[in-house]
Amino acid sequence: MKRSTRSVKAVAIGVALAGSAPAFAQSSVTLYGIVDNGLAYQSSSTSLGSTSNGHSAVKMTPGVWAGSRFGLKGGEDLGGGTKAIFQLESGFNSSTGAQQYTNAMFGRLAYVGVTNPTYGTFTAGRQYASYYQLLSPYSPTTWITGFYGAHPGDIDGLDTIYRANNTLEYTSPKLYGLTVSGSYSLGGVAGSVNQGSTWATAIQYALGPIGLAVGFSRINNSTSGGGAWGADSTTTNGGSQIGVSALTNGYQTAQAQQRFAVGGGYTFNSAWDITATYSNVQYIPGINSKFHDTAIFNTGGAVLHWKPTVVWDFAAGYSYTRATRANGITDSASYQQFNLSQYYSLSKRTGLYALEAYQRANGKTLGTNGAGQIIDATASIGDGFNSTPASSASQFAFGLGVIHRF
What we know:
Blueprint: H1 2-20, E1 27-45, E2 55-62, E3 69-79, E4 82-91, E5 109-116, E6 120-128, H2 130-135, H3 141-144, H4 146-149, E7 163-171, E8 178-185, E9 198-207, E10 210-220, E11 256-267, E12 272-284, E13 295-306, E14 312-323, E15 334-345, E16 350-362, E17 364-367, E18 370-376, E19 394-405
């Protein structure tokens, strides 16, 4: 009996001590990733800025449906509904194993923040600006990819190439279908709070089958290099410009890029949905620019998505981009792009895809030397061919690939 009594007392003391010990918050970390490889054909290829005639090309192309990457994300419960969150994401070339960003291991995403269902989410680090965050559900890249299906050259920044360093971002919780977001990316240029900085704002309404978003962003380029976009040659030109393509090659000395866009979507039923966007993009000159008038590009586009069965997805898209008359150009450039996509799910995580795209360019634009070099506009499908546009007014591209998510 005495031994039994001692045992009961020991258990009681242990329970009391356990109850008085500090309670540690629950935390979690998830490792995730995507590996995507395929073969691509393009009818005409040349280096950006080259005047030589291009030839067709067949090559292995990684990350077409979704950029190959791996990452870590997680959170910790801080109590009262508040959580600390973080995400680190690194891109890589899945056909060579090379790192996507030479000077940034986690060049896709690297941020930390706090979130609360009542007060919203605040994050700090390298991330997408609010403009993209709330417009992306209506982007053409969802079903026809950014590589083939982004609006020509990704002129309106609705694909994932516009990530900004040093970004402070707040996004509200959804209230009656409404979400608002604002972000500011510090340029870090001595003597100026404007050079190299980026700011953006957006509002989204999504309730039931209807969705709508409006966004605005301004990128203030830093002539000293770096700024909010960093100095990696894969995302900037000389550390001060981003998004250079056949459309904007003559405007890469712009002092600022400014974007306004409206996007929306409607889901008819479980099989059919449609999205559409309109954007106005301005490349604004400064005292050191090689052009003197603001270059304005207006783009409209739509994507129809059809999912007839659990394993099949099909989509078709069209976009039209037109530049305004400026910088001595009277026959301003225009670009029409047609896209098709087919996706087959082998499993929940693995799929096969095929993509087809055609673009026709017309009119005139500026060459690398700016206003002193008026040239014929050339085609550049999506944003996967920004560095290898067509040498002529038309371009056709076709791709096949396999993607696995983990």
